[in-house]
Specification:
It is built from three helices and two strands; from the N terminus they run ββααα. It is globular, with a radius of gyration of 13 Å. A two-stranded antiparallel ribbon has the order 1-2. β1 and β2 form a beta hairpin.
């Protein structure tokens, strides 16, 4: 399922995953390298945790706990 988005300068594009803020700069490259359409839930959670770990390293004042729902 593609997500339709419009950038801050009005460019329309489609993407399989979305990130904002530092996630756009730090997590999006990881998603582009490792995401695939047939990820299992467990693989998706591991990928998400990997991205969140990178973001945590950038912002050491953040809490290092994640709840996946």
């Amino acid at each position: 399922c593609l997500s339709h988005q419009v950038s801050m300068i009005g460019v329309h594009f489609e993407e399989n995953h979305v990130a904002s803020g530092f996630g756009n700069n730090l997590a999006q490259p990881i998603f582009r390298d490792e995401w695939k359409a047939d990820l299992t839930k467990e693989e998706g959670v591991l990928l998400l945790e990997k991205c969140l770990r990178v973001l945590l390293y950038r912002d050491r004042s953040a809490v290092n706990k994640v709840q996946v729902c």
